[in-house]
Design goal:
The protein is of the alpha+beta class. 26% of the residues lie in helices and 33% in strands. The chain has two helices and five strands; from the N terminus they run αβββββα. The protein has a five-stranded antiparallel beta sheet, with helices on one face. A hairpin with a 6-residue loop joins β2 and β3. The longest helix is centred in the N-terminal third of the chain and has 13 residues. It is globular and about 40 Å long.
């Protein structure tokens, strides 16, 4: 699989949909060439950001957030992100 920059907004939109049922308030922000996901936490209204960056060694993308990261293909990624956002 080749990492296509056009996939980034679609992946962020998918992640936003996955995070909403967990009480997080995600929104895609930034320019089309480099959007990120702004997430407001449910506990403290703290704002955190999640980026979607290429992981060429794995030929896929990775989610990157403060103090953590996961490949988009990792089935534990959503749970890891939810836990990190609420920390």
């Amino acid at each position: 699989m080749i990492v296509d920059p056009a996939e980034r907004p679609e992946l962020l939109a998918w992640l936003a949909i996955e995070l909403e049922p967990h009480g997080l308030r995600p929104k895609i922000v930034g320019p089309c060439s480099g959007p990120v996901l702004r997430v407001i936490t449910r506990r403290s209204d703290r704002v955190r950001f999640i980026a979607c960056v290429p992981a060429p060694q794995e030929r896929t993308w990775a989610w990157v957030w403060p103090f953590g990261w996961a490949l988009v293909t990792d089935p534990r990624a959503i749970a890891m992100i939810v836990e990190a956002m609420d920390a």
